[in-house]
Amino acid sequence: MNHHTGDHRRFGVCLAALVVFPWAALNVRGNEIAAGVETRSLAVRAETARIELIARLTPTVVCIFNERQMGGGSGVLIDAQGYGLTNYHVIASLLGTRRGLAGLSDGKLYELEVLGIDPGGDLAMFRLTGKERFDFAELGDSDSLSPGDRVLAMGNPFTLAEHYSPSVSMGVVTGVHRYQEGVRGGLLYTDCIQTDAAVNPGNSGGPLFDEAGRVVGINGRISPNWERAVRGEGSRFNVGLGYAISVNQIRRFIPGLRAGLLVRHGTPQATVTTDRDGRVVFDQVMEDAPAWDAGIRPGDELIAFGGRAMGSPNDYANILGVYPEHWPVSVVFGHGNELRAERLRLEPLRVPMKKPYQVDPEVNARAAARALGAYLRAQGSVASQPVTWQARRTGIDASGQPFDVLITHSIDAEGGTEEIREQDGGSPVLRFNAGGIVGGVTSTPIRTRALSDAFYAVRYRANSGRWNSPSAEQDLKWSHIGADEMLGMDSDGRETSSILLEVIQATLGQNIVVQLGFDTESHLLRRVVLREPPTGLEVTQFLDDYRLVDGRWIPRTVRVDGAIGEYTERRSDGKVSP
What we know:
- Helices cover 21% and strands 41% of the residues.
- It has seven helices and 32 strands.
């Protein structure tokens, strides 16, 4: 009996299994089908997004020709006013007239004007006209790229673009921080991006986009294969290695290129090599050069340059090439048993050109007006009522004496004067307007009256936002002199912050030169430099920690150094009116 019972139980289990297994198999199959449907759905969505992205970017890509519609190269528009980037070698043949033609994907040709050039780094800027507003691409962050990231190259390879609609290739980043030696004193590609996205002759000057459609580089060089053609002539084609100038390098040159300048790269006038221990050491340092003035001598070990550790001479050459002339760079080096951190400003590298380059004054004046206008719009409206604030001023005056005073600033509603009263020092009120000091004295005298008047005139204008009125210099002629950078650096020589500046310059009166440096992102004024060339005296103001007061941005921290000594002025919280 028990035996039969066991058989029945086994039969029941088997029967249950026969019932469950088909359903399990169906569930597995169903899951596979669902997964396949989801996978196909994801693929379709990705394809759709990619097609939409290419459609959005296509109007920003430019096919570049000469005035006879010959040649062929590429470019990309970076703002609605028609400004764009390309390679220098694409527009080099246009420099005689600085005019060319540009085809866009709407099938139309537009007039092209060549602006500034960078022969050493193979960059140039142009401007299109003939349309009220152009489609443009945003600039990305090339430092965020890593090998394996997807990228997209667009342009006009082999002049294949029918109706000026660009060709498209996709790939990945195959290397970063690559170095490609220059050709005939120029076309040096340092710290560049390597990609397997197909780049061929005609793609030069075209954009390399990241997955979000932001420009991360300008394509310009390839490692080519040469195919022998008839009569011994060769033709180049891609073998899987293309190189793009990184957009973070390009950002430093854009203000000068937009202003129509011949932009040169910088050098500390010092070379490096590797010693027997494998250290990177300076082997040649020119006397009275930036490196020499920073205290660097032959045999000193180079630890870091521009905030990047140096492991080989190639690292040094690679990072050096990304900086324009006169650029401030931090350097950390070993001098004997001492580790030193300094800043230096680079000297310009010579650019070999057959003919001297002449800056177009109209292009330059337009760039200067654009920068000043952007600042005035960013700063906001002039106060509708008097604005008053207190600040603590501490420092050392021109005679070397320390001081620490509480002062009060006031700008009236009509922008008439600004007043400073040193409350705890008992000094008379110092009153000044756009023309300079109009009453009182200051406990931090500037060494010449001309520089003193200019200093307070500029302070007034910076605070009031009035640069052209009321003033005898309401017709100041500003010129654009390119870009610069404000560096923050800790005690170990590491860069803690950097602000890219756009710089314009004018002459106040007959002797004083004033430079205004605007933050390229916020457009607010961050630095003012005053120079008196006959005496060699200079005053620099750094403006920081802006605060919105009555519809206008006012800096809460001002640091001043130069011919008036050195001081820092910090405005107190809760002491600003209205």
